[in-house]
Amino acid sequence: MNLTVLSVGGSIIAPEKVDAEFLKAFRCAITKYLEDNKDAKLIFVCGGGAPARIYQTAFREVVADADAALQDWLGIKATHLNGTLVRSIFADYTTDELVTDPTLDIPFEGRILVAAGWKPGFSTDTDAVYLARKFGGKKVVNLSNIAKVYTDDPRKNPDAVPLDTISWKDFRVMVGDEWVPGKNTPFDPIASKIAEEDGMKVICADGRDIENLMKILNDEPFFGTTIG
Fold this sequence. Notes:
By secondary structure, this protein is of the alpha/beta class. It has 8 helices and 9 strands. The protein has helices at about 10-15, 20-35, 50-60, 70-90, 125-135, 170-175, 190-195, 210-215; strands at about 1-10, 40-45, 110-115, 140-145, 150, 160-165, 165, 200-205, 225. The strands form 2 sheets. A 7-stranded mixed beta sheet has the order 3-2-1-4-8-9-7, with helices on both faces. The radius of gyration is 17 Å and the shape is globular.
């Protein structure tokens, strides 16, 4: 199976509201890719984006000591909403139900399988790694609004440098080992640990750059960061 797993960040599905123009371009490009590559299958794992952020923020404003697991559940429900939207957009290629538990016995009869959040303790990046493991994928493409991984947060450190490649060891030193609801890292620490154990490669790139995404899918030179 020619399989690629795409962790599609909520930051590009619904950055403030649903970005219909991006989704239209994304659908057009993916449709062409599948038509040109008859043996290809794709798994999309959808993040929560603005709906997750809005509801988690409201919860914290109302409850000073807002429970971390309940914050995660709000984010997870937002991923289900985005996942249902993406699955609907690709209905012509998706015959399977939205995946919300990557550990179950999951059929994959269509060309595209769409998944969303599972349970508290990590982001949808981890769900993407679990699904890659289940279906034998060795590459996860992490699509967000960040074009490359930096040596530090460029918003806080003007000396931060963009990276073309980075080892799992060095990347995991940067992101740590613990998950915090709403944590903003290029790839979540729990997913990183599993991906390293399984010898996976993760590509981080700006998902809004459709031309660059097609280069990644077609194994051509691309702009982004390879971890692993």
